[in-house]
Design a protein that fits this description.
The chain is mainly alpha-helical. It has a single domain (4-95), classed as Orthogonal Bundle (Arc Repressor Mutant, subunit A). The chain has helices spanning 4-12, 19-30, 36-48, 69-95; strands at residues 52-54, 65-67. The longest helix is centred in the last third of the chain and has 27 residues, at 69-95. The protein is elongated and about 55 Å long.
Length: 96
């Protein structure tokens, strides 16, 4: 999975993070290194859709984000669709 929006939502599903923390988390769990332009473009799109929102920063240096309820619903729907594709592909490979 390399869709930046799904990667950002998946990262935020485990808790609030600022951009650099998201990049590190995504690289750890997905093996994908998002560049700053890709990451912040995805953050902007997700924020406009209401799927994430900024939260207050304890330090004020970096802007953390949180996933919204609507964002969680969207992520669940997308992951369920991906799960169907993976299960179908794995089943078909076994029968090939």
């Amino acid at each position: 999975m390399t869709d930046p929006s799904l990667l950002v939502l998946s990262s935020l599903a485990s808790g609030d993070k600022h951009g650099y923390a998201m990049m590190e988390d995504i690289e750890r769990f997905a093996g994908v290194r998002l560049g700053p332009g890709t990451l912040y473009g995805a953050i902007t799109r997700l924020e406009k859709r209401g799927w994430i929102r900024p939260v207050e920063s304890a330090t004020g240096r970096r802007q953390p984000y949180t996933i919204t309820g609507v964002g969680r619903e969207h992520l669940c729907d997308q992951l369920a669709g991906l799960d169907r594709v993976v299960r179908t592909g794995m089943r078909r490979l076994k029968n090939a």
